[in-house]
Specification:
Layout (H helix, E strand, L loop, with lengths): L1 H27 L20
């Protein structure tokens, strides 16, 4: 049983670190808006 508790503790610590990284990225990194242009070929508009 102690190995189960050790395993769950390690999984909980890894999940906590992953949650912290995602939280930090969401709050401290701001995306830079930029203009985007996508060219669509005319044959995509034709019905088949």
């Amino acid at each position: 049983m102690p190995s189960l508790f050790r395993f769950l503790t390690v999984v909980a610590v890894i999940a906590g670190i992953a949650y912290g990284v995602v939280f930090a990225l969401a709050n401290f990194v701001s995306p830079k808006p930029r203009e985007m242009t996508v060219t669509i070929p005319p044959d995509k508009f034709l019905k088949k």
